[in-house]
Write a structure and sequence with these properties.
Layout: H1 2-22, H2 25-36, H3 38-50, H4 54-63, H5 66-76, H6 79-90, H7 95-106, H8 131-138, H9 143-156, H10 158-167, H11 170-179, H12 183-194, H13 199-210
Helix pairs in contact: 5-12, 6-11, 9-10
Length: 221
């Protein structure tokens, strides 16, 4: 009997060690992609692009353009953003791989982590109507599954708790404030709002959840 108890104890000790080794925000990100079916969203975007959907082509053109790349450049100038980047990498999120994928999709060339100069981008015209495209792509995400997963992870997963704690920090709120000083980002934000996308509602809900000190957002003229 003592041997049996010892073996059971050893089993759970090993399992606990394995779980500690597997803990990372990178694993959390992989789970998020699976739960929200983001791969399906990307597939749908590729299909729409292949079918020459006007809104999708306009969106792709905007994302590959100089204005959107300027948002990324502005963001990288924030010390708080660089610290958040380092925090996520240190906790297992492979941002090099993620952003290199983005660069490949947008034909931006090789990705360099913050503090390195980003590659030059090409200029294209701004896109037009996005509301229908937004609704179609968002509808792919099973929101109830995502919400259940998120609440479950927040309750039991130390990595999720670590991530949310970091996002609640004042330094992360500072990143949001820094973005609001970037003209290109504000143009992008107001364009989405002008198209009927409820971006302000999303911003306010996120701010409230993260308990940031200021949940007021700039208006669009």
């Amino acid at each position: 009997m003592k041997i049996f108890i010892f073996l059971v104890s050893l089993f759970f000790t090993v399992k606990a060690a394995e779980l500690r080794q597997k803990r990372s925000i990178g694993n959390l990100w992989d789970n998020f992609i699976e739960v929200t079916k983001l791969d399906d969203v990307v597939k749908e975007m590729r299909i729409l692009e292949k079918d020459e959907n006007t809104d999708m082509l306009n969106l792709k053109g905007f994302l590959k353009g100089e204005n959107f790349s300027a948002i990324a450049t502005c963001l990288r100038a924030s010390e708080d953003y660089v610290e958040l980047y380092d925090f996520l990498v240190a906790n297992g999120l492979d941002l090099q791989k993620l952003f290199q994928w983005v660069n490949n999709e947008l034909e931006w060339g090789e990705y360099h982590p913050p503090t390195h100069s980003p590659a030059m981008r090409n200029n294209v015209n701004n896109p037009r109507s996005m509301k229908t495209l937004w609704d179609d792509l968002v509808s792919i995400i099973p929101y109830s599954d995502y919400l259940f997963w998120f609440l479950e992870q927040y309750a039991i997963n130390p990595d999720m708790q670590l991530l949310i704690g970091r996002l609640q920090a004042k330094s992360t709120e500072n990143i949001r404030d820094h973005l609001h000083t970037c003209e290109e980002y504000m143009n992008y934000r107001c364009w989405f709002i002008g198209e009927g996308i409820e971006l302000v509602q999303l911003e306010e809900k996120g701010c409230s959840f993260l308990e940031w000190t200021d949940c007021s957002y700039p208006s669009c003229g």
